[in-house]
Amino acid sequence: MKLIVEKLVTELNHQAIVQDISFYVNEGEFVGVIGPNGSGKSTLLKTLYRVLKPAEGAVMLDDEAITSYQHKEFAKKVAVVGQESSVPFDFSVLDLVLMGRNPHKRLLDQETKVDHDIAIDALKHVGLEGYEQRSFATLSGGEKQRVIIARAIAQEPSFFILDEPTNHLDIHHQLHILDVLQRSNMTVLTALHDLNLAASYCDRIIVMQDGRLVANGSPKETLTKQLLEEVFQVEATIWTHPLTQKVQVMYVSPGMKQGIFDHQLKSWLQS
User: Fold this and answer.
1) What separation in angstroms does the CA of 14 have from each of 52, 213, 233?
2) What is the count of structural domains for the chain?
3) Orientation angle between helical segments 141-154 and 171-183, nearest 10 degrees
4) Is 208 in the same domain as 89?
5) Segment 112-171, tens digit of pLDDT
6) Is the keyword ATP-binding in the record (predicted)?
7) pTM for this prediction
């Protein structure tokens, strides 16, 4: 399933938050969206999964405009995990994950054994086997996030759109969830804050700044010292991990630099 975005503009309160963005996501690709806070990442994704309407431009999914899909047909193809995991009513974990099966059912259809098996398997994928009867409201933030991801997996989509899916997760579960997504062989477009996770898992990275796309390429092409200074206002050392051969980022804060300078000065004065 291929996504094509052409000259997309999205406005909020008559202000362009996403400005003239064009890119594509090929079938089976794992593409990350990065950028500082307020760069327009969430607004872009909300436009792609039809919460917001574009002011200009086109979004095509398998050569059809996303606006042409009926809600249920779109949900069969695209699963969404947003930043907010709030649920207005309390449900058991299993009931919430079973909601992911709704696009595949007619009105008033009951859940089948196949639906239950798919939901149980989705919970196993996110490491929540045995949580089926737990109340969603009693879970930790990280557990809730994993339930929401399990619900998306239970949809059996062809395309995942995720906005900061590793929020609230400890590092073990961050890696586990991204491993699950990567092994799924589905097309993935996800916003990520952690640049090293983006570098480790993404085939390509889209970089946003002030609502515009400023870079689009492999992690090696996009995560450069110059780009990090210009877009994120941080100084960093870029290196290649000896085991994974993936680009990795080591940050140097002004305080760290000052500490190193003070230590060197003290050693010089004492010599």
Assistant:
1) 13, 20, 28
2) 2
3) 10
4) yes
5) 999 999 999 999 999 999 999 999 999 998 899 999 999 999 999 999 999 999 888 999
6) yes
7) 0.90
